[in-house]
Amino acid sequence: MTETTTPNLAQVVAAFHDLYPPQLAAGWDASGLVCGRTAAPVRHVHFAVDALAATADEAVEHGAGLLITHHPLLLRGAQFIPDTDYKGHVLHTLIEGQCGLLGAHTNADAAIAGVNEALCDALHLTDRTALAESQTQELGGEEHLVGTGRVGTLSEPLTLRALSERLADALPATAGGLRIAGRPEQRVSRVALCGGAGDSLFEAVRSVGADVYITADLRHHPASEFREQELVRGTGCALIDCSHAASESLWLQRAGERLQALLAERGHSITFTVSSLNTDPWDFTVPTGSAAGSASTR
Fold first, then answer.
1. Architecture of domain 9-103+248-274
2. The pLDDT of residue 175 is above 60
3. N or C: which end of the chain has fewer CB within 10 A?
4. What residue ranges carry the coiled-coil annotation (predicted)?
5. What's the whole-model pTM score?
6. Phi and psi torsions of 142, nearest 5°
7. Which residues contact 250 (CB under 8 A, 6 or more apart)?
8. Number of C-alpha atoms within 13 angstroms, CB side, residue 71?
9. Residue 149 — left, alpha, or beta (φ > 0 → left; ψ -120 to 50 → alpha)?
10. Which residues have a Cβ under 8 Å from the Cβ of 225 and sit 6 or more positions away?
11. Cβ distance 20 to 108 under 8 Å?
12. Class of domain 109-242
């Protein structure tokens, strides 16, 4: 048996970035290593969607040398980071606990086995391609087309309700559940999706002829205009709006497995955990008005 060694932080980050290349990130993004001594040994890596006080505490309790989160802590920057500020509190907790912090945001959205691929897996989609902004990712000596969002095909058509139930079963529990625009019994086959906020991609959704679009954080006006335009065109693409955090959580387990396997190929050994904390900001919902829970009138 080949003896393995404990990698340092720089080696873990390099391996992770070989899987989820930083160059795939959008220009406005802030993915990458936020804090941590690059020479420090890393025996355990903890994964979470968000860098919050609770996930920082969790990482330190696990004895992690690195916390990898999907959402960057300093996406909008910070001039000061005292422990009285939540971002400062997170950083102080991690630094004092000898745990680094790495954000993997839009590079993990676009990459192979990333956020959107995990959603495709959960829905059993085939013939997958990037929904928009195609880029090339090299892996294993081969080049792959990746990009923003995904579009794929169900192995057999489902009703909108059945597809929604399949998605609900795959996602972690959140207060808001799923919001759905469309007839429950309409048949869907071609599925477009984008983990996280995706209402900027409506034109791409139209261009690929999707029967349903799955994303998060849909705002009233873009969603309403999309539905009205679909009615005028007579195409009727349905919408499924889910929790932002939930839609971006499914890739973390596989990311840990892939990172562990790649480091093993390089002679290193780590363990990893994935946070089970619900980092969706909403705690509960209350139906409103006499029409609460009623079907659409369209």
1. 3-Layer(aba) Sandwich (3.40)
2. yes
3. N
4. none
5. 0.94
6. -120, 150
7. 115, 118, 119, 121, 122, 170, 171
8. 20
9. left
10. none
11. yes
12. alpha beta
Asked if residue 169 belongs to a known ligand binding site, the reply is no
Distance CA 167, CA 57 (A): 30
Query: pLDDT tens, 34-47?
Result: 999 999 999 999 99
pLDDT band (50, 70, 90) for residue 77 = confident
> What single DSSP character describes residue 289?
S
Helix (H, G, I), strand (E, B) or coil at 149: strand
124 is in an annotated binding site: no
Question: Which ranges in the chain are annotated with CATH 3.40.1390.30?
Answer: 9-103+248-274, 109-242
Checking if the pLDDT of 264 tops 60, the result is yes
Among 94, 103, 53, residue whose Cα is nearest residue 75: 103
Residue 144 carries which side chain, given as an amino acid letter?
Answer: H
According to the annotation, is 248 in a ligand binding site?
Answer: yes
70 is in an annotated binding site: yes
Pick from 218, 248, 217, 241: nearest CA to 105: 248
Burial classification of residue 246, based on how many CB atoms lie within 10 Å of its CB (0-12 exposed, 13-18 middle, 19 or more buried)? buried
